[in-house]
TrEMBL record:
Pfam families: Alginate_lyase. Gene3D superfamilies: Chondroitin AC/alginate lyase. This is Alginate lyase domain-containing protein. One of its GO terms (cellular component) is periplasmic space. InterPro entries: Alginate_lyase_dom, Chondroitin_lyas. Residues 480-510 are annotated as: Disordered. GO terms for molecular function: lyase activity. Residues 76-300 form the Alginate lyase domain. Keywords: Lyase, Signal. Residues 484-496 have a biased composition (Basic residues).
Amino acid sequence: MKALQLLLALLPLASSFSHPGLLVAESDLARLRGKISARLDPWQACWSSFVNMAPANLPYTPQAVSSVDRDAVGSTDSNAYLLWTDAAAAFTLALRWKIEGNTSYADAAATILNSWSDKLTSIGSNDDQYLVAGLQGHELANAGELLRDYTPFRENGLAKFQTMMVDVFLAKNIYFLEHLDGSEHNVKHFFANWELAQVASAMAIGVLTDNTTTFNFAVDYFKNGSGNGAINNAVTNIVQEPDTGNPLGQGQEEGRDQGHSALDFALLGVIAQQAWNQGEDLFSYNNSRILLGAEYFARYNLGYEVPFEPYTNGLVSYTEISSGSRGDTRWAWEVLYNHYVMIKGKQAPWTTKYLNKTYETYGGFEPGSGSFGSHKVSGYYDTLGWGTLLYHLNETDVASLRESTTSTSATHRSVDTLAALIKVPEATKSISGSSSFLSESTPTVPASTATSTATSTAASTAASTAASTAASTAASTVNLHPGQHAHGHQHSHHAGPQKAASCPLPPKKQ
Ligand SMILES: *[C@@H]1O[C@H](CO)[C@@H](O)[C@H](O)[C@H]1NC(C)=O
Ligand SMILES: *[C@@H]1O[C@H](CO)[C@@H](O)[C@H](O)[C@H]1NC(C)=O
Ligand SMILES: *[C@@H]1O[C@H](CO)[C@@H](O)[C@H](O)[C@H]1NC(C)=O
Ligand SMILES: *[C@@H]1O[C@H](CO)[C@@H](O)[C@H](O)[C@H]1NC(C)=O
Ligand SMILES: *[C@@H]1O[C@H](CO)[C@@H](O)[C@H](O)[C@H]1NC(C)=O
Ligand SMILES: *[C@@H]1O[C@H](CO)[C@@H](O)[C@H](O)[C@H]1NC(C)=O
């Protein structure tokens, strides 16, 4: 109570944002520097993979163009990979600079961002432009956020970069979430991943540009939006786990396939972590609805059955869960596991096991974009990843985070948020067995399901330097194994055909 009063007294400061304050906070950087210098796993194993991949190394040549598109236009091939590989590289190089202190990496990251700010005006001509707006929007904003205190960039680049992010990306994020596109006369037309990407991007650009209106717009949409990017629509039903009766959250895309459902949880982790670093606790929102959904996904994708409530948005209907791409692993689980289990002290048995599966798949850590898979397959670049570097905590780390919670709360924005954060230490309890991850360092596994075989086979060869080779050779020769196919078509479809009879606007392509 005393702490709350103290914090309330500091509320006049509440309009300021913490920087860096999106996927990475200063405390994450400090912790990681310590882990790397002490050569502790799993951080060290992850760091080796990170610094050995091509985009973490110089020279890096930016590929900026004036117009990108996820689709071929006339005789012009799709070229959005130029943007998503550069976004991943800019984030990577900025993070490497933050950890190692070598300004060559900051300069290279700045060069990438500046070259896009100088050129980019268009991100596509059909619906897929919104995927670029959301997915690459949040990635670029995160790169810029990490670099914003690098003086040469702050003085010559940041303002121009912010303008591009607002004009080219945020404008689309908001247009889409306000359902102004013709297809969106049914506000549930687009699957959750489309809208979650816009929420992640709008929130990130709000912080990047110190714009409270934009940040609050994204938070409000998450809590109370009318489309599938609002959490109560992204996780449609609360069902009971067989045997235990525990609540589980059925995801909006569970009847569609598991690859897109995995993307939803990757994006929900991004959204909640970005908000958390600004003092807004979306992880706990509505009985930790994100976690209920993650537990449902993880249980099913580990090979266990889950209840399924019929789903329809009036355009597509599902009566059973889809086994398509079941067992899909994306880089999504470190942030969820460490937040809910380590920081909050919650039970999250399926999420815990899914992180374990992730470690087994990728060689003892959760990797990120640029280290794995073809650079032309969007699914490897939808979110930035590197959760082991950024979020993995041991018990000592958790204790020091709790200590710092009160002192950093001055930047937090609302009474509700302050109260939520103050409760964190009370809710926390010690978790045994979490250190089992620390000893994981060998790739083991081929996943048990057919659809993830391609991913894990690739993973066993990928460990560190092999990954960049794979990325550079994969381009046009890539063979779409089932797992990769799921990635490649991650979000190229929305919720199905419009019925002309009920639709006053011309039908759009699926
Ligand atoms: C910084 O990084 C560059 C590029 O890898 C390297 O050539 C240079 O030696 C590094 N500088 C220091 C001081 O380590
Ligand atoms: C903040 O962003 C909103 C859109 O979210 C925009 O209307 C407003 O002009 C921005 N404010 C500033 C100061 O740029
Ligand atoms: C949710 O939005 C509706 C209108 O769309 C509004 O009436 C209501 O107050 C909002 N609730 C919250 C919690 O923001
Ligand atoms: C929480 O979810 C339930 C449905 O499961 C919904 O009725 C309720 O309005 C939600 N509450 C908030 C605060 O979003
Ligand atoms: C992770 O999997 C390994 C076997 O691969 C097992 O020994 C370990 O107990 C598992 N850890 C957790 C937390 O499930
Ligand atoms: C956690 O890691 C730190 C280094 O970051 C180390 O000093 C500490 O002993 C570790 N704590 C536990 C419980 O392993």
